[in-house]
Model the fold of this input.
Amino acid sequence: MALIVDGGALVEVVWVSLIAGIGLTLVFSVTIAGAARASQQRREGRAGLALAWGAVASVCAVACIAAVVVAVTVMLHK
Amino acid sequence: MDSDVLLVLVVATALAFDFTNGFHDTANVVATSISTRALRPRAAVAIAAILNFVGAFLSLEVAATVASGIVDADAVTLQVIFAGLVGAIVWNLVTWYAGLPSSSSHALIGGVVGAVLAASGPSAVLGEGLLGKVFVPALVAPVLAFAVAGIAIIVAYRVVGRQRPGPVTRGFRTGQIISGSLLALAHGTNDAQKTMGIITLALVAHGTLGADNPEVPFWVVVSAAAAIALGTYCGGWRIIRTMGSRIIKMDAAQGFTAQSSGAAVILAATHAGFPLSTTHVISGAVMGSGAAKRLSAVRWGVAGNIAVAWVLTIPAAGSTGAVVYAVSSVFGAGLVGPLLIGALLFAGLIALGLSRIRQTPPAPEPT
Done:
């Protein structure tokens, strides 16, 4: 079986898929939640908290953009 | 002279297959975006078509052709390639008519394997290659995508659960445009190359290109990219409806999760050099994002029909490829057989198109 299927590649696909798929969803969800909370705190007049949630959302958005860049790089170098 | 005309026929059939590939697989890329209203249907297929076209130029590593390691390379002739392509086209059209997402790569492999079986017998088919490159990945792809999307949607609901639904939905819809675009780009990179590989193989079999490290001619790249983009733009709406709304009724978070998990699995497989079908991955991800919310949210009857289509893909396309080769070889090794079958296929497609125009009103675009 090991000769028929590239076991190393299969294991790599499984763990990279799990980390990338769940990680990207987590980071993007935090971006959305952070932006929503920042907006809510701003409406309630809590500038400090709004700024903090805005920063969280921004960092996560940058991480998502980085993930897209990595994805395109994988396509370019396959 | 005959072999030149046969080559032209094979190239035209390969481009026709490429068109059905784009047409058939549009759903993989756009169905979830349309279903959750992240994009209007025409905009979704237009973006997918453009990115499929661009994706075809991103990488030209056609070192391994689609059936390499699965059939004996010496058994692959122009007639075999033609018969394999016809088998794949017919299966793509049958599954499109039934509204079932199935793998175009597996249809092509099945068609070529069937034609090789008919031409050279079982010894020309490499069983281990078929198992390792087709059957095992066909099991891994949907199960892995199901698991990744299932866990991811639970994480997403946990994180955004207490927020107002309006901004959350808008956020996930925006994310879907990006993840859908990535999928379209990846699809163009992977699937247009199958056609480039098959045309290159035909050029080698014809003697136009040398067998040692043949370079893909630029006209092959452009024509394959154009055919898959055109097919994508035409959009297989029947499969889009199945994938977008008949398996599960999805919200924007599920749509984003299915697409991003699918993209992660496809790109991880691309990176590792493990061949996975885009269709199997996205279908598994759609089911996973639905089942994790509620098992009964998935219409398991529809999912079962899709699984049956997957199981039947190789045997059905293979049988068609074998019959086409057998009929074609009755007229000898020359041009007559493929030309007759090509004419029959063309007439069949025209008849199918005319009957569709006469019998059914234009399908309203899903909103």
